[in-house]
Write a structure and sequence with these properties.
The complex is a heterotrimer of chains A (335), B (334) and C (302). Chain A has 335 residues and is α/β, with parallel strands linked by helices. Helix content of chain A is 33%, strand content 22%.
C-alpha cells in the first residue's frame, strides 16, 4: 500500500496471504496485507477476533509459512522459512512476547532458568558470570527486582510475569519485537507497568515493535502507525496522530464507538457515531466486495460488488492516511 | 456480627432487596486457608444498579458467588449474613433455593464454560425452565415458547438454528446472549453479572452491555455488575463499590469515584489506566495483591500504599461517610 | 580490579541463593509426600524389602536353603519360631527363600523399568514432538502392534520360543511394556508442545533436543514417575504369572512366582508353603502402590 520514503524499512510486507485448508473449506485468515515498519517505529495491527492480526504476526515469526505474498526482513525474504529452519542469526533478530504470561513461561522453571536458556542459546561461549550479569541487567532494565530470579512463574503476579517474558525476549538483543496483545491478560495496575517498560525499552534500545492488539488505548500509548484489520485485510492505515484525529473507515468508527468513555475529553475523541451492530462473519465465507458491507451503515450498491481499492488521503513526510472505502473515492489525493 | 456501625448506617432498610452484612469467606486448600473476604457489606435497593470495581484477585467473583452460594467446595462463609428481602439466605436453605429459582439470575464471565458442551441450547433452556416452573403445570410446548421468547428478548438472530446448536457452534457474542437469556429466566428481581463482557470482542462488548442495560430497565431489575473496567461500569450503574483485597474500600456514585477518588488505591487505579486521549502512560501500582494466606493485619492495601502510616499497619480502617453518597475506608480520612 | 571483585561477590551470593532455592524445592516435595501416612507406609515397605533383597545373605536365617538343599527330616514343617513360614517339601525354609525371592523380584523390576521407562519416554517424546512426520507414524504404529497382542500371550510366546529363564522373562516383559509409556508420553507431549512457552523457546532458537529434554520433560516427570512406581507392581505380577506357568525362572531358583507354582500342588494340606511367597508378592505390590500414590501427591501439589 505505501512505500516508505525513508531508508529501507526493517520489515516489509507485501500482499501477504495465509490460507488454512480445512475439511470444511478454506479459511482465508490473511488475504492480501501490505505494510512497512521502519527501524525504531511501532506499528499497531488492530482488529478483533477473526481479523487475521495474530496470524499475520505468526507468519512473520515463522510459526506458519505464508501462502502467498512476501515478508521481507532487512530485504531478506523470510515469509517461507519456518522458524525451525531459520538461522540462529535471524532468530536472534526477531522475538515475540505472548499474550498470556501464565502459559508463555515454563511453569517448572525458575525465572533464572528461563533467562539462562535464552542467554545461553545466543551466547554459547559466555561464562557463568557473564550470563549472570546479563540476567541482572535485563531484570533491572524491565523494572523487576533481583529476588524474582529465584521464583517460579506461579509465584509472580501477571504484570511481573509479562515483564519476565519481555526480559527473555530482550536477551538475544533483537531488533524487531512482536508484542502479541501484551496487556490484554493483565489488570489495569499491571498494564501501566508493562507499558512503561515497553516504552523505556524502545527509547533506550531503539528497537522496532509490531504490536498486535484490540485495545485502542494501548495503541495510543505505544504506536507510531496504526493498521486496522478486518477479516484478513487492512481497511485503514495511518500514523497514530492522524488516525485518532480523523478516523475514516466505518469499521474504525464502530471500534472507537465501542470503547467505553469516561471523560468529556474522551467523548471528543470517540464520538458515538456508529453503535456496533452485527458480528464478524466466518473467515471461511467472507462477503463479496467490501467485507464490511453487511455491518456497514453506509453501505452502497458498489460495496457489495467490488472490493474498494486503497485510497490515499494523506501522504506527507511524517503523516499519512490510507483507507479502503468507497465513501472516500472522491477525496483521493493524486500524488 | 455487626461491629461496624458505619457500614450499617448505609443500608436503607425499607427498600432493601439484597443486604450483605459483614461477610467473611475463606477458601481451604490441602495446605492453606485463604482469608479472602474480610468483612464485606453491600446493599442493593429495589431498582438500584450497583457496580463492583476491582482487579483480579480482589474477591469480586467470590462475593457474587456467595450471594447465591455457588462457592466451590473449598469455599466457606465463615461469618456474616446475606439477607434477601429481610430473610437470611445463609440460614434458610429452602429460602435460598426459592430465591435462586425465582428471583435471582446470574451471568457468568466465560459463556463457553457456563454452557454444557454436550447439550444443545434447546436442551439447556428446557432444563432450566423445567426447574424454574417445576411446581407449575406447564407443558413442554409452553416451556418451548417461553424459551423462544427469552431468546428473542436477547436479540438472537435465527432462533431456530440457535436452539438446535451446540455451544461450540455459536460465536462468543451469541453464547453470551444465550447465557443472559438463561439468567433472565430466573431473574425476576435481581440480576448478577460477573464480568459479562471480558472475553468478548470490543464491538460485541458494547452490544452486550447495551442489551443488559435495556433488559434491566425494561424489566425493572436490580443489578449487581462486577468488572475491572471503570469505563464500563460508569455508564451502567448508580452506585459503585470499589473492592481491594477482599474488602470494600470506597463507595460512591460513579461521578464521585471518577471526579474525586479518595482512597489511594482508587486514585492510583484511575490514574494508571491506559488512556485513549494521550500517549502518556500512568505509573501503575507497584507490588501485587495481598497473599490471602497471610493478609496484612491492618489495612490490606498498606504494603502498596504510598501514603501509608504506622496505624495502617495495625488497624483496619472503618468506612467513613465523606459526602452525600461517598464513603471511604482509609486512615487518611479519619 | 574492584569491579571484578564485586562481581564475584554477587556471583557467589546468587549461587548460594540458588542452592537454597533448590533445597527448598526438595523439602517441599518431601513435605507433600509425607503428609499421607499411607505413602510413608508404602515407602517403609519398599525400603525394608529393598534392604532384605540386598542383604539377603544376612537377613535370611537359612541362606543355603535358597538354592539346592535337601533335608527331608525338616520337610513339611508348619510355621514356627524356627521356620517363620514353615518348610517346603525339600525341607527348605520358605522364609529364607522368600527373602531371596525378593531379590529376584526387585532385580526384575529394576531391569525392566530401567529400560522401558527411558526408551518408552524417549520414543513417546519424539512421536509427540514431531507429530505429523514419518517418525510419529513409525513409532506409534509399532506401539500399536505391540499393544494389540494381549500382554501375557506375548510374554508367553517369547518365553516359549526362547529358553525359559529369568532373563528371558524380563526380556518378554520389557518388549510388551514399552508401548504404554510411549503412548502416555506421546499424548502429554503432543498437548504440551503447542503451549506458548514451547513456541517461545523455538523463537529463541533453542534446539529441538533441548526443548524436549529441558522444557517438556520436567513437565512430564509427575505422570512418568507415578506410572513407573505403579507399574512396578504389574511387572512383578506378570513376572510371577510367567514363572507360575513355568516359563520363567526354573526351580530351584527361589523366584516368588515359581515358588507359588511349585508349592500350589501341595495345597490344601501344606497351605503355608504357597501362602508365604503369595503373601510376599502381595506385600511388595501393596508397597509399590502406596509409594506410587505418594509420588502422585508430590507432583500433584505443584
Amino acid at each position: 500500500m505505501i512505500s516508505s520514503k525513508l531508508a529501507t524499512p526493517i520489515l516489509s510486507v507485501r500482499d501477504l496471504r495465509k490460507y488454512f485448508i480445512l475439511s470444511q473449506g478454506v479459511v482465508k485468515a490473511v488475504d492480501g496485507v501490505d505494510f512497512d515498519v521502519n527501524e525504531g517505529e511501532t506499528l499497531a495491527l488492530v482488529g478483533e477476533s477473526g481479523s487475521g492480526k495474530t496470524t499475520t504476526a505468526h507468519v512473520i515469526m515463522g510459526f506458519y509459512t505464508a501462502s502467498g505474498g512476501s515478508v521481507k526482513y532487512k530485504s531478506e525474504e523470510i515469509g517461507y522459512i519456518p522458524i525451525e529452519k531459520r538461522s540462529l542469526k535471524l532468530r536472534k533478530e526477531i522475538q515475540i512476547v505472548f499474550q498470556d504470561p501464565a502459559t508463555s513461561l515454563n511453569p517448572k522453571k525458575s525465572v533464572k532458568d528461563i533467562l539462562e536458556i535464552a542467554i545461553k542459546t545466543h551466547f554459547p561461549n559466555s561464562s557463568r558470570l557473564e550470563r549472570l550479569k546479563l540476567m541482572l541487567d535485563l531484570i533491572n532494565f524491565v523494572g523487576l527486582s533481583e529476588d524474582l530470579l529465584f521464583k517460579k512463574p506461579s509465584e509472580l503476579g501477571g504484570g511481573e510475569k509479562q515483564l519476565v517474558a519481555l526480559a527473555r525476549a530482550l536477551a538475544p538483543d533483537p531488533q524487531l519485537i512482536i508484542l502479541d496483545e501484551p496487556t490484554s491478560a493483565l489488570d489495569v495496575s499491571a498494564q501501566a507497568r508493562v507499558l512503561r517498560a515497553l516504552s523505556k525499552v524502545q527509547r533506550e534500545r531503539k528497537n522496532t515493535y509490531l504490536l498486535i492488539t484490540h485495545d485502542l488505548s494501548v495503541v495510543r500509548n505505544l504506536a507510531t502507525k496504526v493498521a486496522i484489520m478486518y477479516l484478513g485485510k487492512i481497511y485503514e492505515y495511518a500514523t497514530t496522530e492522524e488516525f485518532f484525529s480523523n478516523p475514516l473507515h466505518p469499521y474504525t468508527q464502530m471500534l472507537l464507538s465501542s470503547v467505553p468513555t469516561l471523560t468529556e475529553e474522551e467523548e471528543k475523541i470517540l464520538p458515538r457515531k456508529i453503535p456496533s451492530s452485527g458480528e464478524i462473519p466466518s473467515p471461511m465465507n467472507p462477503p463479496s466486495g467490501c467485507r464490511f458491507y453487511p455491518r456497514c451503515p453506509f453501505a452502497k450498491e458498489i460495496c457489495k460488488i467490488k472490493e474498494p481499492p486503497p485510497i490515499v488521503i494523506k501522504d506527507k513526510e511524517d503523516s499519512f492516511h490510507i483507507v479502503r472505502c468507497w465513501l472516500y473515492i472522491d477525496t483521493q489525493k493524486i500524488p | 456480627m455487626f461491629s461496624q456501625e458505619s457500614d450499617y448506617t448505609r443500608i436503607d432498610k425499607i427498600n432493601s432487596l439484597l443486604e450483605v452484612r459483614d461477610l467473611y469467606v475463606n477458601y481451604r486448600s490441602y495446605w492453606y486457608v485463604y482469608k479472602v473476604l474480610n468483612g464485606v457489606s453491600l446493599s442493593v435497593r429495589k431498582g438500584e444498579k450497583v457496580g463492583i470495581l476491582g482487579e483480579s484477585g480482589a474477591g469480586k467473583t467470590t462475593l457474587l458467588k456467595s450471594i447465591i452460594n455457588i462457592l466451590p467446595p473449598s469455599g466457606k462463609i465463615v461469618n456474616g449474613d446475606i439477607l434477601y428481602k429481610g430473610k437470611s439466605l445463609i440460614k434458610d436453605k429452602k429460602y435460598l433455593n426459592e430465591i435462586r429459582r425465582r428471583s435471582i439470575g446470574m451471568i457468568f464471565q466465560d459463556p463457553l464454560a457456563a454452557l454444557n458442551p454436550v447439550f444443545t441450547i434447546k436442551e439447556h433452556m428446557l432444563d432450566i425452565l423445567k426447574h424454574i416452573y417445576k411446581n407449575s403445570n406447564y407443558s413442554k410446548s409452553d416451556l418451548m415458547s417461553m424459551a423462544v421468547e427469552l431468546l428473542r428478548e436477547v436479540m438472537l438472530p435465527d432462533i431456530e438454528r440457535v436452539l438446535n446448536s451446540y455451544p461450540f457452534q455459536l460465536s462468543g457474542g451469541m453464547r453470551q446472549r444465550v447465557v443472559i437469556a438463561m439468567a433472565l429466566a430466573s431473574a425476576r428481581e435481581l440480576l448478577l453479572a460477573d464480568e459479562p463482557t471480558t472475553n468478548l470482542d470490543v464491538t460485541i462488548q458494547d452490544q452486550i452491555l447495551r442489551l443488559i442495560d435495556k433488559l434491566v430497565n425494561e424489566r425493572k431489575l436490580s443489578l449487581v455488575l462486577v468488572s475491572h473496567a471503570l469505563g464500563l461500569l460508569y455508564r451502567m450503574v448508580n452506585t459503585l463499590y470499589v473492592m481491594y483485597g477482599g474488602e470494600i474500600i470506597e463507595i460512591g456514585s460513579p461521578r464521585d469515584i471518577l471526579k474525586d477518588p479518595l482512597h489511594p488505591y482508587t486514585r492510583m487505579l484511575i490514574e494508571s489506566a491506559p488512556r485513549i486521549t494521550t500517549p502518556k502512560v500512568g505509573e501503575g501500582i507497584r507490588g501485587n495483591p495481598p497473599d490471602y494466606r497471610n493478609p496484612p493485619p491492618g489495612c490490606r492495601f498498606y504494603p502498596r500504599c504510598p501514603f501509608a502510616k504506622e496505624i495502617c499497619k495495625i488497624r483496619k480502617p472503618e468506612l467513613k461517610k465523606v459526602g452525600e453518597t461517598h464513603y471511604v475506608r482509609c486512615h487518611l480520612y479519619e | 580490579m574492584s569491579g571484578k571483585a564485586i562481581d564475584q561477590d554477587i556471583f557467589k551470593e546468587i549461587l548460594t541463593k540458588e542452592r537454597v532455592m533448590r533445597r527448598e524445592d526438595w523439602r517441599r516435595a518431601w513435605y507433600r509426600f509425607k503428609k499421607s501416612k499411607l505413602s510413608l507406609t508404602g515407602l517403609a515397605i519398599i525400603i525394608s524389602i529393598l534392604f532384605m533383597a540386598i542383604f539377603a545373605d544376612f537377613v535370611a536365617p537359612y541362606p543355603t536353603h535358597a538354592g539346592l538343599y535337601i533335608n527331608f527330616k525338616e520337610a513339611y514343617q508348619p510355621p514356627s519360631l524356627k521356620h517363620l513360614m514353615g518348610t517346603d517339601m525339600y525341607g527348605r525354609d520358605v522364609f529364607s527363600r522368600v527373602v531371596f525371592g525378593y531379590r529376584y523380584a526387585l532385580m526384575m523390576v529394576g531391569m525392566v523399568l530401567s529400560i522401558v521407562v527411558p526408551v518408552g519416554t524417549l520414543l513417546g517424546m519424539l512421536a509427540g514432538y514431531y507429530r505429523g512426520r514419518w517418525i510419529e507414524h513409525v513409532i506409534m504404529r509399532a506401539a500399536d502392534i505391540f499393544v494389540s497382542v494381549p500382554p501375557l500371550v506375548l510374554a508367553l510366546s517369547i518365553c516359549s520360543i526362547l529358553e525359559p529363564n529369568v532373563f528371558n522373562a524380563m526380556l518378554a516383559i520389557t518388549l510388551m511394556w514399552w508401548p504404554w509409556y510411549t503412548r502416555m508420553v506421546y499424548s502429554i507431549t503432543s498437548s504440551l508442545r503447542n503451549e506458548p512457552f514451547v513456541w517461545a523457546a523455538k523463537a529463541l532458537g533453542v534446539s529441538d533436543t533441548k526443548i524436549m529434554f529441558s522444557e517438556l520433560l520436567p513437565n512430564m516427570l509427575g505422570p512418568i514417575l507415578t506410572k513407573a512406581t505403579l507399574d512396578a507392581s504389574w511387572v512383578i505380577l506378570i513376572g510371577a504369572a510367567i514363572s507360575f506357568l513355568g516359563l520363567g525362572a526354573q526351580p530351584p531358583t527361589p523366584d516368588l512366582g515359581t515358588m507359588v507354582a511349585e508349592y500350589s500342588s501341595y495345597l490344601p494340606q501344606y497351605w503355608w508353603m504357597s501362602l508365604g511367597p503369595a503373601l510376599a508378592i502381595a506385600i511388595l505390590i501393596l508397597g509399590f502402590n502406596l509409594l506410587g500414590d505418594g509420588i502422585k501427591d508430590v507432583f500433584a501439589g505443584e
